[in-house]
């Protein structure tokens, strides 16, 4: 039996045993990087396929208060585009796929990124080794990297 009042790390896109949507925004915010990665994976598994994209020209609002790592970015972006427990990528390849449409938003679209200063401070150059993938160690994905990818994907990003 699952307690529907608390987040379920194995299936955070849905809480409770009946598959009800996540109860509130940023439910993933207190998770470490590994659980945030699992959150995005669960969001992918539970996404509502067959739902049409929001039309080109739509505006989405990203709550950036908890974008302290790349996994937090994917969680926040998923919620911005597809609502509570939403999915819009969980790695760079998946983000590229999502930016082609059929994942909730049809480019071009506008993304208003609130509290962007958090990502400016945390998504910086260096080396990054997420707890969930200890086999690899590579350059960190920076805010500038993400902005370049989003811009190439025809997303107008407004950092606030």
TrEMBL record:
Positions of the UniProt region annotated as Disordered: 1-22
Residue stretches making up the Barstar (barnase inhibitor) domain: 59-123
Biased composition (Low complexity): 11-22
Top-rank lineage group of the source organism: Bacteria
SUPFAM superfamilies, per database record: Barstar-related (SSF52038)
UniProt xrefs under InterPro entries: Barstar, Barstar-like_sf
Gene3D superfamilies: Barstar-like (3.30.370.10)
Family affiliation: Belongs to the barstar family.
Protein's name according to its UniProt entry: Barstar domain containing protein
Organism of origin: Planomonospora sphaerica
Taxon lineage: Bacteria, Bacillati, Actinomycetota, Actinomycetes, Streptosporangiales
């Amino acid at each position: 039996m699952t307690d529907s009042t608390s987040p379920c790390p194995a299936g955070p896109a849905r809480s409770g045993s009946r598959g009800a949507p996540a109860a509130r925004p940023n439910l993933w915010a207190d998770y470490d990087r590994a659980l945030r990665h699992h959150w995005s994976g669960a969001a992918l598994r539970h996404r509502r396929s067959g739902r049409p994209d929001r039309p080109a020209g739509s505006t989405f609002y990203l709550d950036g208060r908890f974008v302290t790592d790349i996994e937090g970015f994917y969680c926040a972006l998923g919620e911005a585009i597809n609502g509570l427990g939403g999915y819009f990528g969980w790695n760079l390849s998946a983000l590229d796929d999502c930016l082609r449409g059929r994942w909730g938003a049809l480019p071009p679209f506008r993304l208003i990124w609130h509290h962007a200063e958090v990502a400016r401070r945390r998504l910086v150059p260096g080396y990054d080794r997420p707890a969930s993938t200890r086999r690899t160690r590579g350059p960190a994905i920076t805010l500038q990297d993400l902005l370049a990818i989003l811009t190439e994907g025809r997303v107008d990003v407004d950092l606030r």
